[in-house]
Structure formats: C-alpha cells, structure tokens
Amino acid sequence: MMVRVASWRYDNDLPCGEEANLAKYLAAEAAFDCTDRAMQTHGGFGYAKEYDVERYWREARLMKIAPVSQEMVLNFVSTKVLGLPRSY
Ligand SMILES: Cc1cc2nc3c(=O)[nH]c(=O)nc-3n(C[C@H](O)[C@H](O)[C@H](O)COP(=O)(O)OP(=O)(O)OC[C@H]3O[C@@H](n4cnc5c(N)ncnc54)[C@H](O)[C@@H]3O)c2cc1C
Questions:
Q1: For domain 2-81, which CATH number applies: 3.30.1490.180, 2.60.120.260, 1.20.140.10, 2.30.30.40?
Q2: Across the chain, what does the average pLDDT equal?
Q3: How many angstroms is it from 67 CA to the middle of ligand 1?
Q4: Distance from the CA of 71 to the center of ligand 1, in angstroms?
Q5: Among residues 28, 30, 24, which one has the least CA distance to residue 10?
Q6: What is the model's pTM?
C-alpha cells in the first residue's frame, strides 16, 4: 500500500520523499521477512547455493543496505518528517 501511495504521488508530480522512504523501509523489511521464512521452511536446502531460496534471501537482505540503509531512512524520517534534530 505504501509503495502504491509513493508511486502515485511520484506519477502525479507531488512531493513523495516521505512516502518513498517509508515504502522502501517497509518493503525491504517485508521482503526480508518473507525470504527468511522461506529459508527456514526449506532448512538446509534453503541455505544451499544450488537452490534459488538462498539467492532470494541474499538479494532481499541487500535492500536493507542499499540503495540507502534502513538507518538512513529512519534518519530521513526523524529530521525531515518529524522535525527532530539531526543525530549525526
Ligand atoms: C550490491 C550493491 C550494489 C550497489 N549499487 C550501487 C549503484 O549502482 N550506485 C550507487 O551509487 N551505489 C551503489 N551501491 C552502494 C550503496 O548505495 C551503499 O552500499 C549504501 O548506500 C550503504 O552505504 P555504505 O555501503 O557506504 O554503508 P555505510 O554508510 O558505511 O553504512 C554502514 C552501516 O552504518 C550505518 N550508518 C551509516 N551512517 C549512519 C548514520 N548517520 N546513522 C545511523 N546509521 C548509520 C548504516 O545504516 C549501515 O548499517 C551498491 C551497494 C551494493 C552492496
């Protein structure tokens, strides 16, 4: 839902920094939870490189680091949305 809100705002030339950051954060968390659950379900075969689950897990994990880390999303929200002082 957040991805759709952010995309809609972007497509309609509306400011979308807040929504895009929140969408990225939530989608990264959801993707990782999903693939981590898949790995747990498949056990050792999930971890083995020969099967695709490991790659999905690794690629979903990347989204918590790049293109911007989850911590930097929280920094954005705290300063730009909540108006808190910059913490670094
Ligand atoms: C596979 C891959 C592909 C990439 N492709 C591209 C690309 O095509 N173009 C491009 O420009 N970049 C690319 N990157 C770089 C990517 O944007 C950075 O890895 C990402 O922004 C994180 O920066 P960093 O690796 O320097 O980590 P750092 O900034 O060193 O962060 C390390 C840790 O410290 C935390 N941290 C850092 N600063 C703060 C802070 N102020 N407050 C709280 N926590 C903080 C981070 O959240 C993280 O947990 C890619 C990276 C990877 C791994």
A1: 1.20.140.10
A2: 97
A3: 7
A4: 10
A5: 24
A6: 0.92
